[in-house]
Amino acid sequence: MSNSTVCGTLVAIWCVMIFPAMAQNGGGLEKAKSQASEHFQKGEWGQAAIGYAELVKSEPGFRQGWFRLGFAEHSLGNFSEAATAYQRAIALGAPPIAQYNLACAFARLGKADSALDMLDQSLNAGFTQQASLESDPDFASLLNNSRFKELNQRLLRSIFPCKYDPRYRQFDFWIGEWEVFNPAGQKVGTNSVQQILGDCVLLENWTSATGSMGKSFNTFNSSTGKWQQTWVDDKGTVLELAGTLNGNILTFEATVHDTAGVATQHRLSFTSIAPNTVRQFWEQSTDGGATWSVAFDGKYVRKGE
């Protein structure tokens, strides 16, 4: 069960308490809503359930009241009552979280098909507030259900689209902790390349042997169909490059103009040589590509290898 970003269900003991009588004037109604909300926020599920039950009797179109009544009843282990309240909230246009929680209630009631149907509806409606269906204890009875597993994969793909898109995985060979050597075998620096932002971006953290530092952000741009790299360093250098994969080589290119208008072409290639070895080769041209000079040639060796 999910309430905003809260996952799982805490089952409490029902405590019978008398909720203050509902006043008929507007001020009294707002006070009753405030009291019910306070109980709800504190996790006082018995008092919250009584309060919201009274409120929805007085105001049947109170969508949030029906949802919170369902959540309170669910937290108390009253899954049938919770399902009824969630269904009323859904009928009033509640967001996909209500459908998800109704699926949780159905699962607790042993209604597997109804739970799976409602999960399907919640995902179709855009529910993404649960990191994984398998982590919700309400679905413990469905963990081995093949349809449940398929729905879980759908959720994961919607939450982490880059992780499951093979185009974003083309540069994964560069991920890791590296020592970098020049062609003469001298260590010229270290590099830490990390996956960030839901595996959509590779963050490079470069430190040279002399102490200079730089970083780059690397991602596949689905709108252009190309990789893009943004490099910045402690000397004020900024490079924006676009690249494509050809076999085991990802090549970035860019043209930069200086303040005098002189153009410099950059060609930066990363080659996956072996699981623990990568070559980074950076060339520059100031004559339109007629000739190229080497700006950097580094052999990456994974630390510990």
Summarize the structure.
This protein has 305 residues and is an alpha+beta fold. It has helices at residues 26-41, 45-58, 63-75, 79-91, 96-108, 112-124, 146-159; strands at 2-3, 6-7, 176-181, 187-196, 201-208, 213-221, 226-233, 238-246, 249-257, 263-274, 277-285, 293-302. The protein folds into two domains: 2-159, Serine Threonine Protein Phosphatase 5, Tetratricopeptide repeat; 167-302, Lipocalin.
Give a verbal description of the structure.
This protein is an alpha+beta fold. It has two domains: 2-159, Tetratricopeptide repeat domain (Serine Threonine Protein Phosphatase 5, Tetratricopeptide repeat); 167-302, Lipocalin, CATH 2.40.128.20. The protein is built from seven helices and twelve strands. A ten-stranded antiparallel β-barrel has the order 3-4-5-6-7-8-9-10-11-12. Helix 2 (45-58) runs antiparallel to helix 3 (63-75) and helix 4 packs antiparallel against helix 5 (96-108). Mean pLDDT is 92; it is low at 4-24.
What's the total count of β strands?
Answer: 12
Q: How does the major sheet shape up?
A: 10 strands, antiparallel, barrel
Estimated radius of gyration: 29 Å
Helix residue percentage: 25-40%
CATH architecture of the largest domain: Alpha Horseshoe
First and last CA, distance: 46 Å
Report the CATH C-level class of the largest domain. Mainly Alpha
The run of helices and strands is: EEHHHHHHHEEEEEEEEEE
Q: Mean pLDDT, rounded to whole units?
A: 92
CATH topology of the largest domain: Serine Threonine Protein Phosphatase 5, Tetratricopeptide repeat
Number of structurally distinct domains? 2
Which strands sit side by side, in order, in the main sheet? 3-4-5-6-7-8-9-10-11-12
What is the approximate shape?
elongated
Tally of helical runs: 7
Instruction: Output the CATH homologous superfamily of the largest domain.
Output: Tetratricopeptide repeat domain
Strand content: 25-35%
Derived from helix and strand composition plus strand pairing, the structural class reads alpha+beta
Enumerate the spans where pLDDT stays under 50 for 5 or more consecutive residues: 4-24
